[in-house]
Amino acid sequence: MTPCSSRPRLALPDGAVFDLVVIGGGATGLSLALDATRRGFRVALFESHDFASGTSSRSTKLLHGGVRYLAQGRLGLVREALTERAALLQMAPHLAQPLSFVMPAYRWWQRPFYGCGLVLYDLMAGQARLGRTRWLSRPGTLQALPGVRAAGLRGGVAYWDGQFDDARLALAFARTAQQQGAQLFNHTAVLDLHREHDGLTTLTVCDRLGHTQASVRGRCVVNATGVWVDQLRKSTDTAPKPERLVSPSQGVHLVVDRDFLGSDQALLVPHTRDGRVLFAVPWLGKLVLGTTDTPRPDLPREPEAYAQERQFILNEASAVLQRPVHACDVRSEWVGLRPLVARDQERAGQATRGLSREHTIVQDEHGLVTVVGGKWTTCRAMADDVLAHCMAHGLLPQRNPGNPLDPLLGASEGQRHVPLHQPPGIHLYGSLAHEVLACPGNDRLIGMGLTEAMVRHAVRTEWACSVEDVLARRWRTLFLDAREAARMAPAVERILLEEGVGQPGLEDFLKLCRHYLPPHPAI
Ligand code: FAD
Description:
The protein has helices at about 25-40, 65-70, 75-90, 110-125, 140-145, 165-180, 230-235, 305-320, 345, 380-390, 435, 450-460, 465-475, 475-480, 480-500, 505-515, and strands spanning about 15-25, 45, 60-65, 95-105, 135, 155-165, 185, 190-195, 200-205, 210-225, 250-255, 265-270, 280-285, 285-290, 295, 330-340, 360-365, 370-375, 445, 450. It is α+β, with helices and mostly antiparallel strands and about 525 residues long. It folds into 3 domains: about 15-55 and about 170-245 and about 345-390, 3-Layer(bba) Sandwich (FAD/NAD(P)-binding domain), CATH 3.50.50; about 95-165 and about 245-340, D-Amino Acid Oxidase, subunit A, domain 2 (D-Amino Acid Oxidase, Chain A, domain 2); about 425-515, no CATH class. Helix 1 packs parallel to helix 6 (about 165-180) and helix 13 (about 465-475) crosses helix 15 (about 480-500). Flavin-adenine dinucleotide (FAD) binds next to helix 1, strand 8 and strand 16.
C-alpha cells in the first residue's frame, strides 16, 4: 500500500503469544525473522535501538567469500559464503551488486601467487562465479586504478566480489518480513525473560521512545544480539551464569573523496603490516578505507577509533596511493564491533584476527537459543541453521522453507540497476521508488540526494524515529560525510516534527557527527 500520511508508533503486543521471538534487529535477527515468517511461523522481533544500528550498519559493505579465509585454508567457510553472496545479489539487486576488485602487485611473485589463489576462489564459486579473474599488465593496472602508486608497480590481478548497502539491505529484510506477517519493533529493548512452567518464555519489553512496557510470550526465543549476546544471556534466570561466548574486536573505516582512487573498481592490498587485508572501496560516491581488527572487551554503542588504528589505515593507504591520505581528508570515521566467537580460541590466547568468523548456536537449560558470529554475507545460512536447530530440539514444529530465494521488497527483475558506487539517489528504493514519489516534497532536496519526501517516507514506512535513524541508516550521510550530515540535520528535524515525531534528537545527532570525525574537526 502506498503511504500517504504519517502514522503513530505501533503499540506493543502486550499479552500476545508468538511461535518465535527474535531479540536483535541486525543482519542475523532480521534474516531469521524473514525465514521463519516465510515458513509460516508467527514471529515478533524486538530491537533495542534502530534496525542495523549495531554492527550491521558498520561493515565494509562487501558480500564476499573472504579471500583472506582462502589463504587460511578455511575452504568450507569460503564456499558457503560464495553461495550466499550469489543469493543476496539475486534477492536485492538494487542494494547488492557485483564489484570488480584489483590487487596491485609490487613484487614479482605477487601476481602469480595471488592470481592462482583468486582463480581457485572463482573455481570454488562454481555457478555462483561473478566474473573471471584476470591478470593485468602494469598499464592495465594503472588504467583500472588511476590513483595507485606507479613507482615499482609490476602489474595486478582483477577479480570479482559483491558490495552492498548494509543498513538498507537490513531494512529490505525487515520490510519483507513485515509484509509476510512478522511484527517488528525498533527502539524496543528486551529487559528480561524467564521460562514459565507451561514451557513458554515470558519477555518484558520496553518501548524506549514511548516509555511503555509489555509482556509477550514465545514458544521459542532466539538471542541474536550480536556482541551483546552475553549481556542478555546473563539477564535470564539461568544459574549458574553462562560462560562468555563473544570476544569482540573492533574495525575502523575512514571515508575520503573518491578521487584518491579515481576508479569504479575497488583496491585490495593483500598483506598489510599486521598481516590483514586493506580495502579501498568506492561506495555511494565516496571511497571507504578499512579496516582494523583490535580486541575491544567493553561494548560501547558508539566505539571510537584508537589513534593508532586511524594512523595505520592512513599509512597503509598512503603507501599504495599516489596521493597521501591525511586525517584532515577524512569525511567520516566509523567503527564496528565484530561478534567473534571466543571460547576455545580465546582460551588459547589468540589475537582476534585468528578467531572464528563462523557462527555458533547454543541453547541454555531454559531453552534460550543464542546465535552469534558469522558475517553479513552468511546471515541467511545462519537463519537456516538456527531454525533447523529449533525444529530438531522440539522448540518449533517442523516446517520447510518456502522459497528462501524469493526477492526482497524493492527488488525488480530485468531493471538496469544504478551501480552502488554512484552517489545515493532514488534508485536505492528499487521498485518501491513510487512510494517515495507519492510523499510530498520530491522536488525539495536537503542534500546528498536526500529529498524531503524521502524523510517523510522514512518515518511513514521505514520505522525512522529520529534524525539519526534518517541520516545514519535510511540515508547514509553520516557514514559518508559527517560534516554534511550535521549541516542537513536541522532540515531533517523540521520534517520529523511535521510528521509527528515528538523528539527527533537533533542535539544528540550533532554530537554524534563530531564523534564520526577524527579529533578536533570544525563542524
Ligand atoms: P548486530 O548487527 O550488532 O545486531 C544485534 C542487535 O541486537 C543490535 O542492533 C542491538 O541493538 C540489538 N540488541 C542488543 N541487546 C538487545 C536487547 N536486550 N533487546 C533488543 N535488542 C538488543 N560481514 C560481511 O559479510 N561483509 C563485510 O564486509 C563485513 N565487514 C565488517 C567490518 C567490520 C568492521 C565489522 C565489525 C564487521 C564486518 N562484517 C562483515 C561482519 C558483519 O557486519 C556482522 O557479522 C553482522 O553485522 C552481525 O550482525 P548481528 O545481527 O549478529 O549483530
